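Bumping my old thread because nobody answered last time. Still need a sequence for this structure:
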């Protein structure tokens, strides 16, 4: 039987919301998948762990990008847009749906997972959040997360945050020549961008591991980052690129 994008999203949501992941409780977090010019995204208030096929809505990306790009648009226009989707789909999209939109607009991502992992938030809610993006600690971190994660300052979730991330992504891609796979939001949580459900779960798990290693390293004198030339080497050597391609393709049942 063929796996549909909706099947993929339900399965991803349940795995991301599994208490063993320690990445989301209650209504925290959201997931989406790109389907052509649309995005399927979690409806507002859904508990990831118990996600069902009826818990997702279809959102047209072009209309959403136009809304975000319109400087005149504010909370009232977002509310009208979400209400129109609710009338058509029966549910309102998650308030963080607009952030998923800008990630699909600016990158090649086909699946996006947003969560609030306890271990990563320990750093994101501390005065040491930069450690998550200042350097790499070990080779597998680079293989899974790449070498250019993005850290976003705290901004009110919704259209303001979506606009700010849109700008930051443009700057980031211009500077590094590639989109980030891992996006960290101060005092909030993380976004994982990938080609498959398995890849975004792998990215989320690796972000949690990096956070735990950083916290441990800081308890014994401080983190020692890898030399930048060694980071570059892992990021570009052929066997690691091969391993990365395998990780991205793992469980590739996306549309
Ligand atoms: Zn969130």
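Sorry it took so long. Here it is:
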């Amino acid at each position: 039987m063929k796996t549909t994008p909706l099947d993929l999203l339900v399965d991803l949501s349940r795995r991301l919301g599994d208490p063993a992941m320690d990445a989301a409780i209650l209504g925290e977090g959201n997931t989406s998948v790109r389907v052509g010019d649309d995005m399927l995204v979690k409806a507002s208030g859904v508990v990831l762990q118990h996600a069902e096929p009826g818990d997702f809505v279809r959102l047209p990306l072009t209309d959403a990008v136009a809304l975000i790009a319109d400087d005149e648009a504010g909370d009232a226009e977002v509310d009208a847009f979400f209400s129109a989707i609710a009338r058509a789909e029966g549910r309102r999209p998650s308030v963080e749906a607009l952030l998923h939109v800008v990630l699909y607009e600016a990158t090649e991502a086909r699946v996006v997972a947003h969560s609030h992992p306890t271990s990563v938030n320990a750093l994101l809610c501390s005065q040491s959040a930069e450690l998550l993006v200042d350097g790499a600690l070990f080779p597998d971190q680079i293989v899974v997360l790449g070498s250019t994660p993005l850290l976003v300052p705290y901004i009110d979730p919704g259209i303001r945050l979506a606009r700010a991330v849109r700008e930051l992504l443009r700057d980031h891609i211009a500077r590094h020549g590639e989109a980030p796979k891992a996006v960290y939001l101060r005092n909030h949580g993380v976004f994982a961008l990938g080609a498959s459900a398995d890849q975004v779960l792998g990215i989320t798990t690796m972000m949690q591991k990096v956070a735990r290693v950083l916290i441990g390293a800081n308890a014994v004198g401080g983190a020692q980052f890898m030399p930048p030339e060694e980071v570059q080497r892992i990021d570009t050597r052929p066997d690691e690129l091969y391993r990365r391609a395998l990780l991205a393709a793992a469980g590739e049942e996306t549309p």
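The first helix runs from residue 5 to 17. Let me know if any region looks off to you.
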